Fold:
Amino acid sequence: MERSEKLIDKLAQTRDLTDEEFLALLEDETEETREALAARAREVREAIHGKDVYIRGLVEFSNICKNDCKYCGIRRSNRNAERYRLTEEQILECADMGYDLGFRTVVLQGGEDPYFTDDRLEQIIRKLKDRHPDCAVTLSIGEREKESYQRLFDAGADRYLLRHETADEELYKSLHPEEMSFAHRIKCLRELKEIGYQVGAGFMVGSPGQTKASLVKDLRFLQDLKPEMVGIGPFIPHHDTEYKDCEAGSVNLTLKLLSIIRLLLPDVLLPSTTALGTADPMGREKGILAGANVVMPNLSPSSVRGKYLLYDNKICTGDEAAECIRCMTARVAKVGYQVVQSRGDHVSYKEKN
Ligand code: 5AD
Ligand code: FES
Structure:
């Protein structure tokens, strides 16, 4: 613990550690160290964002996916997934309802569904921006060509979430089919940054085969890319995948990583994720207390919620949007923070505009 205390000081002051020091910190699994990291992370986060927690309305608009990531419940080879695709009108309705509930960011998330061509997406984004000019639009629709990213940006999209999943190339290979590559993933992230999106990277904690050394690579990767947002959550097995019998990722390790990421990238927009809330009934609250400052309640129509299942036992699949936002607001308040009605842009964006 004494060593860890010193490492936490060094990390908070220099925003850096050696690989060996990162490893030592990750390997110290004591509650004291976890809590000391969280306390530092809260300090840093409150100095920049106060007690504010930003909300994003998540619209899971298609679970059709041409990819076959081995861990994911909506991978194309899962014949048991009941597929759906929302219409443009349904997507716009979700956004309208979200707006009325106080959301100022809508996240369009979906599988890599070829139906959603640039033309179709552009039209949806333009209509969204037309109806709600004060809303940010975030896309989370996987790997595309740079021209496509550019067109969607020009249509009005503000942000893009594309988790790198793991920065350990060997592990990346083992989690994905042959045709996917870490190099292409990174290329996409760099292009998104170049275009001017606020970019979210991120990874799963405890994916099959992941070591603490892999996680150190993830931290290095984040230091280098400097994304505006970082999404992390524990790996949770899905019963229709080859990893069905694998152990889920650790909630406590996820919390420690949230705190470390807050210290590495003090300004970062860091969600307390649904996977964290699924792995532990108090997971999202614990995430906020570990330094997270974003929550992403679900805005998808209740008729499709139970179908967007990336992993087993996902929470909030039976709730209406209004119920989710009410519940989330109360949960955040209970741990001493407040949900705010704001776009919740990254500070660098505010400086630019
Ligand atoms: N457990 C936890 N997270 C998962 N994701 C996909 N499958 C799982 C799983 N089984 C995450 C991936 C993806 C994000 C949308 O959901 O990191 O980028
Ligand atoms: Fe969805 Fe609590 S956040 S019901």
The longest strand covers residues 198-205. The mean pLDDT is 97. The chain is about 45% helix and 10% strand. Residues 2-343 form a domain with the TIM Barrel fold (CATH 3.20.20.70).
